[in-house]
Design goal:
Largest sheet of chain B: 2 strands, antiparallel
Strand content of chain B: under 5%
Helix content of chain A: 25-40%
Low-confidence stretches of chain B: none
CATH class of chain A: Alpha Beta
Oligomer: heterodimer
Largest sheet of chain A: 6 strands, mixed
Mean pLDDT of chain B: 93
Mean pLDDT of chain A: 93
Radius of gyration of chain B: 23 Å
Bound molecules: adenosine-5'-triphosphate, magnesium ion
CATH topology of chain A: Rossmann fold
Order of helices and strands of chain A: EEEHEEHEHHHEHEHEEHH
């Protein structure tokens, strides 16, 4: 499915701000893998997801989806393979377009956008059904501007937009971090449901160790631009926060001293 | 005292009334230009200064073609195409060469000054209705208003349709959230180039009609066009919002751009009627635009001001103190 081979990325090379963000990342995801990603601040989690999405070209290395090298494609040409939800709820939607218009734009990801109507009549019913499942009452507000919605509602819509056209890979970058705990739990539950129902392959960055352990079938930990732990199968099922901490110390030779890496509640 | 009385008695309402239709006709023509500004400024979120040049290009192309025997309709359409070309150049400078939006527009605008001079061969070309068949002319203002309104109806209809299509939606989403647009597979550079082309095409069409209306094309006729366009867009938006609150749909918003153009020309008519020196008209334009730009901001600020909170808290706290005592 996804293959990342020896990817390197340095920001601002040759300046005082030089930052080696990715130091030889290697990762292979199988079809249907739901992989959580943890690691301290600046470990390179977002940078890895951005490298896959093509926000900028990598310095070296290859990124393959279903065997096809996508590392030379610009961001908008990779979009057909990818569904993305960002940390900031403002990023994923257009505030001054209606909910239904946002969904219609996402439903056309990877298609040629011509001169037929941006939203067809038949789409309204289809989206209504999809929104109903969220139980947020959004199905009755499809003509509201997205800007009027709360962060959690916007994130739910972004999640729907990311998956409305089945992506080969779903990228979730701390997509619940900006939400209050209750809303975060709800959006996380929705993510689980969508990933399972559609049997999606997904990468989910989180700073909550407990979430990383309870969700998905695989867990990777990053440190200093490298993947230092990769746990899957039975081992992942039996994982606890204590075991994870021990493993991390062994793998990286240091202890975790990072406020943002929550141990869970 | 005598001076003031003399001044007011010299203001003749009939003169103002007689000039009103002309103001309206010009307002409609400039309203078309403002619809072009609306595409870049409001939808694409791109401050495009190309328009000062492309407006004059519209007049220049129309004039030189007419003089060389091309009939008026083809001449007008070719003017529109020339405007599209100007927009493509700005789009190229911005998306391919990475030049910031304002600078890209200014570069094209400066280049167009020379190009327009080359097109016309001199700074001014007369195209009087006496010598040529024109689409509209200031000699028949009633007809000019009707023709101008017809153009406005067609252009607004086309814009309403286009920006509702899949392709038109990409322009709106690019202007409002480029990161999301890219994530949804939209080529935002293509969207920007298309929007700039359409906008400047419309601006050149307006320039062509304005040259026909005034009976000549002039190298300086586009000077300050961006400010007039913005004035129309902003006056229209403020008035439209005052009437329709938040309920104005897209077609109403477009219509109010034309209304904004008309109101702008009427206020300029008032300024001239008050016998303010013509040298100062640009100054008045700037003041009018500044007032309308500031209006939504100040209105919002008065609703959300710290002073208001302080005042209200003082009141309620006083009341509680009294109740306690
Ligand atoms: N566009 C950029 N320009 C310059 N430096 C960057 C850029 N993006 C990331 N970095 C740097 O690269 C390093 C890795 O950042 P990244 O965002 O991937 O961390 P992260 O693991 O997602 O951390 P966090 O938990 O804080 O989100 C950081 O030092 C960061 O400052
Ligand atoms: Mg991050």
């Amino acid at each position: 499915m996804l293959e990342i081979i020896d990817v390197y990325k340095t920001f601002n090379p040759g300046t005082v701000n030089e930052k080696k963000a990715l130091n030889g990342v290697n990762l292979k995801l199988n079809d249907g893998d739901f992989c959580t990603v943890i690691g301290g601040n600046g470990a390179g989690k977002s940078t890895t997801l951005n490298a896959i999405a093509g926000v900028w070209p990598v310095d070296s290395g290859a990124i393959l989806i279903d065997g096809e090298d996508i590392s030379a494609l610009p961001e908008h040409k990779r979009a057909p393979y990818l569904g993305r939800v960002f940390q900031d709820p403002m990023t994923g939607t257009v505030a001054d377009m209606e909910i239904i218009e946002n969904l219609a734009i996402a439903a056309r990801r990877g298609q040629k956008r011509g001169l037929s109507w941006g939203v067809k009549k038949s789409e309204r019913e289809e989206y209504r059904e999809l929104l109903k499942q969220f139980e947020l009452g959004l199905e009755d507000r499809m003509s509201s501007k997205v800007g009027l919605l709360s962060g959690g509602q916007r994130q739910a819509i972004t999640l729907l937009m990311a998956t409305i056209k089945r992506p080969k890979l779903l990228l979730l970058d701390e997509h619940t971090a900006a939400l209050d705990p209750k809303t975060a739990a709800k959006v996380l539950e929705l993510s689980d449901k969508i990933i399972e129902e559609n049997n999606l392959t997904a990468l989910m960055v989180t700073h909550n160790m407990k979430d990383a352990i309870t969700h998905g079938n695989r867990l990777i930990m990053m440190s200093d631009g490298k993947i230092v732990l990769d746990i899957s199968g039975e081992e992942k099922k039996k994982l606890t926060v204590e075991i994870l901490l021990q493993k991390f110390e062994k793998a990286s030779g240091s202890t975790i001293d990072n406020d943002r890496m929550l141990l869970g509640d | 005292m005598d001076g003031i009385i003399n001044y007011f008695s010299s203001l003749n309402p009939a003169v103002f009334a007689s000039q009103l239709p002309g103001n309206i006709a010009q307002g409609i023509i400039w309203g078309l230009m403002a619809l072009g500004v609306f595409i870049t400024y409001k939808l694409l979120n791109f401050a495009d200064l190309t328009v000062d040049g492309s407006f004059a290009t519209g007049g220049a192309v129309t004039a030189i073609l007419l003089i060389n025997g091309v009939p008026i309709w083809p001449a007008t359409l070719i003017a529109l195409a020339a405007g599209i070309l100007a927009g493509l150049v700005t789009g190229f400078l911005h998306t391919v060469l990475g030049i910031p939006d304002i600078l890209a527009g200014i570069l094209t605008q400066i280049a167009l000054y020379s190009i327009n001079l080359n097109i016309m061969g001199k700074a001014n070309l007369p195209i009087s209705y006496r010598n040529y068949t024109l689409i509209l002319s200031g000699s028949n203002i009633g007809r000019a208003i009707i023709v101008g309104l017809s153009f406005a109806v067609v252009v607004i209809g086309l814009m309403y349709w286009y920006f509702g299509t899949e392709q038109g939606s990409t322009i709106r989403s690019t202007g409002s959230n480029p990161a999301m647009s890219k994530a949804q597979g939209i080529n935002i550079n293509a969207a920007k180039v298309i929007a700039l082309a359409l906008s400047n095409g419309l601006v050149a069409l307006s320039g062509s009609l304005f040259a026909q209306y005034q009976g000549f094309s002039d190298i300086n006729m586009g000077r300050g066009a961006i400010v007039i366009g913005l004035a129309a867009v902003i006056i229209g938006a403020v008035i439209g919002e005052a009437i329709f609150r938040k309920r104005a749909n897209f077609i109403i918003k477009l219509t109010f751009v034309i209304v904004g153009g008309i109101l702008y020309y009427i206020s300029m008519g008032i300024v001239l009627w008050l016998k303010m020196p013509t040298d100062d008209t640009k100054l008045f334009t700037a003041v009018i635009v500044a007032v309308f730009l500031a209006f939504p901001y100040l209105k919002n600020k008065s609703k959300n001001s710290f002073k208001r909170v302080a005042k209200e808290n003082k009141k309620t706290l006083n009341r509680e103190e009294k109740a306690d005592a």
